[in-house]
Amino acid sequence: MNTFEYARAADAAAAVAAGAQAKTAQQGADIRFLAGGTTLLDLMKLGVERPARVVDVNRLPLAAIEKTADGGLRIGATARNSDLAAHPLVKRDYAVLSQAILSGASTQLRNMATTAGNLLQRTRCMYFRDTAMPCNKREPKSGCGAIGGANRSLAVLGTSPQCIATNPSDMCVALAALEAVVHVTSPKGEQAIPFGDFHLLPGDTPERETVLEPGDLVTAVTLPPPSAGSKQHYLKLRDRASYEFALASAAVVLNVDAASSITRARVALGGVGTKPWRAPEAEAALVGQRADHAAFRRAAEAALAGAVPQSQNGFKIELAKRCLTHALATATGVA
Ligand SMILES: Cc1cc2nc3c(=O)[nH]c(=O)nc-3n(C[C@H](O)[C@H](O)[C@H](O)COP(=O)(O)OP(=O)(O)OC[C@H]3O[C@@H](n4cnc5c(N)ncnc54)[C@H](O)[C@@H]3O)c2cc1C
Ligand code: SF4
């Protein structure tokens, strides 16, 4: 591992001031915040990330999970994934989030991993993690080994000619469907960023993965009040039953009235997009429809209509459609 200077942040202002000295934004920057370390230390050992300075944010008072005045939920940036998944309010009101977190990684990793770290975890594209390979995300303008290479696990939605890497998070798929807001304290003050605006598409700058600027410290994620009576489900399809990233996943939050008509739908996909993928086309296709398999399949077709397959991952398009159809059927109890 490369040498680096380690510092423990005394308070959020000190962390922001330290981070603001970075030349670029958080991901890939020379000054980095350290939370659970389950992404950052891995990448430092591989030589993919080489920060000169690491600022430990674990002692900041940002671990609380609490109800907000409007009946929503505030999740602190350093709340551990295990604590979040097990929290009674999350299990009761935001079950899709608990299910998504518990489908990821392992118990030990979830005990370390934090909310902010999970938001900012990086792709598992094998070329990104191997410094001998070309990768526009790791080293801008070096090329993309995955296009025409080993791309079975990579994205079919939101890709660009520069990068087709999948966002690997499970938690973020649920946060997209729950319409979370990311709270950031920065040299410019406080910001509240709607979840759909937080992650960026790769476009011509795949090295830039979020809207964060140098010194931006994620302090919390908030969830709006739960939709009363909503039916929720997270389904993750992968090569093996545990300790594996999604090939396709779906988070759904639906309201269905007494006549079995869908009155509200929130849908997001994982494993197939370059960012956590909200699917408004699927939501529009569901609202006003009777909750049945035909409607679910039409929604799935709409969600994947813009998918672009690579040489090895065309199977993901049908897999994601079936994943979403099945998640909708499970949430609504349609046999
Ligand atoms: C073997 C393995 C299997 C895994 N499987 C899965 C899986 O199936 N599903 C899944 O979703 N995830 C999986 N993960 C990823 C895991 O969820 C992430 O590594 C974890 O969530 C990262 O959180 P962390 O707190 O450890 O982040 P860290 O490694 O500490 O940090 C990650 C990034 O976030 C930045 N950061 C941290 N805190 C802040 C903050 N407050 N403000 C701004 N920036 C911040 C850091 O600078 C760094 O860039 C797996 C990981 C491993 C190692
Ligand atoms: S898909 Fe993205 S992360 Fe993977 S090699 Fe290409 S540029 Fe790098």
Net shape: globular
- The chain-level mean pLDDT equals 96
Number of strands: 12
Q: Assembly state here?
A: single chain
Derived structural class: alpha+beta
Which parts are unreliable, with pLDDT below 50 for 5 consecutive residues or more? Answer: none
User: What percentage of the residues does DSSP assign to strands (E)?
Assistant: 15-25%
**Strand-and-helix sequence, N→C?**
EHEHEEEHHHHHHEEHEEEEEHHH
Binned, the helix content reads 25-40%
> Sheet with the most strands?
5 strands, antiparallel
Distance between the termini: 53 Å
Walk across the major sheet and give the strand order: 4-5-8-6-7
Count helical runs: 12
What molecules are bound to this protein?
flavin-adenine dinucleotide, iron/sulfur cluster
Any idea what the radius of gyration is? 19 Å
Outline the fold blueprint.
Elements: E1 5-8, H1 12-19, E2 31-34, H2 40-45, E3 53-56, E4 65-67, E5 73-76, H3 81-86, H4 88-93, H5 95-102, H6 107-112, H7 115-119, H8 171-177, E6 181-186, E7 189-194, H9 195-198, E8 217-223, E9 231-237, E10 248-256, E11 262-270, E12 277-278, H10 280-286, H11 293-303, H12 315-332
Parallel strand pairs: 1-3, 2-3
Antiparallel strand pairs: 4-5, 5-8, 6-7, 6-8, 9-10, 10-11, 11-12
The structure holds flavin-adenine dinucleotide and iron/sulfur cluster.
